[in-house]
Amino acid sequence: MGVDGRLRAVVGLAQAMAAASTPRDSVRAAARGARAALDGSFAAISAWERERGCLRVLVNEGERRAGEEEFPADESYPVHDFPEITEFLHERWAGGGGPHAWVESAVGERPGRRGEALRRRGRGTCVVAPIVLSGRAWGELYVARDEGLPDFDEDDAEFATVLAAVVAAGLAQNERLEEARRLAFTDPLTGLANRRAVDMRLDEALEEHRRTGVVVSLVVCDLNGLKKVNDTLGHAMGDRLLERFGSVLSLCGAILPGALVARLGGDEFCLVGVGPGADEVVRVTEELCTRAAALELGEGVACGVASTGDPIGPVKSSRRLFRLADAAQYKAKAARSPKPVVAGRDTAVVRLADAAAEAASGERRRFRGRP
Questions:
Q1: Who's near 368: CB < 8 A, 6+ residues apart?
Q2: What is the rounded (10 degree) CA torsion for 276, 282, 288, 293?
Q3: How far is CA 215 from CA 21, 190, 252, 354, in A?
Q4: Kind of pairing, strands 301-307 and 341-342?
Q5: Using one digit for the tens of pLDDT, what is the confidence trace for 67-111?
Q6: Nearest to 55 by CA among 141, 134, 118, 135
Q7: Which are the contacts of 82, defined by CB distance < 8 A and separation ≥ 6?
Q8: How far does Cα 210 stand from its chain's mean position?
């Protein structure tokens, strides 16, 4: 492949990664583009997971061998088996050099597991290029050729270094986009989901409820005593109380498979359950109330529960579920109840929520000049 061909390959790789809609699509586009650019038979991208001390394979692309899945669930290798990602590269960077790809051969004498892996899988040569993000080794790009094909050479290693830099730029862009998406649906103080995430989850859950009858539950929580903590101990301690309760809510929410826990704003939190029965949701909410009452700050929590598994009537939208849970929470707060109030099991709550909805509807009609 001439200079023009390699330039087109670099542009194609960058465009393919930019067009990817998910992180998985992005790493697949990166591996596919690098394999094609280097005339390889196979390519893989792996991430260095420092906390586990391993290289985890994210994608295997091209002519795969037995046991090589395109997106493996947990194909990983101890870094000490492939020390170049930490030792060899670090020594080069410490000496003032940059990250540079290198070539391995099935018949080479270089120590390590690369040659052994090539021989075991019927491949003759490979080029390994470090992927560097923000000045740190993020992982590696690996491209191999089958036995009988020409070996990679130093020119290929130079080109692989360029390709790895393009891959790193694409991954960094995707990480920034993912971070932006995450922040759009995350409360910055507690790290829980925010109201936007709750609305989306409830809309999806209620659509599933209409199709399949799955139980959808909403728990609304109002943290007691936050204003007193802010006024007497300062807002930093108030933030600490919010964070501590957020952790307790997350812990209790984990008991319910697939639950979403969120901070709605101020001292209001919620939990969305999809699947578990109403009794199970109530038990978890009781546990939440007990744990919240034991916090060193604040005065416990008032919780209201509304679930399609209880006799609350048809739930056509998330607004009604919120009205019911809010009404139950208001009643719990007014009574300073140490346990949750549950709509449907407390029939007054359903009447209160529906009366409030009717009143609001009447106000709208009068505003519009209707009788």
A1: none
A2: 180
A3: 32, 27, 18, 21
A4: parallel
A5: 899 999 989 888 767 666 655 455 454 444 556 888 989 886 665
A6: 141
A7: 55, 112, 113, 114
A8: 27
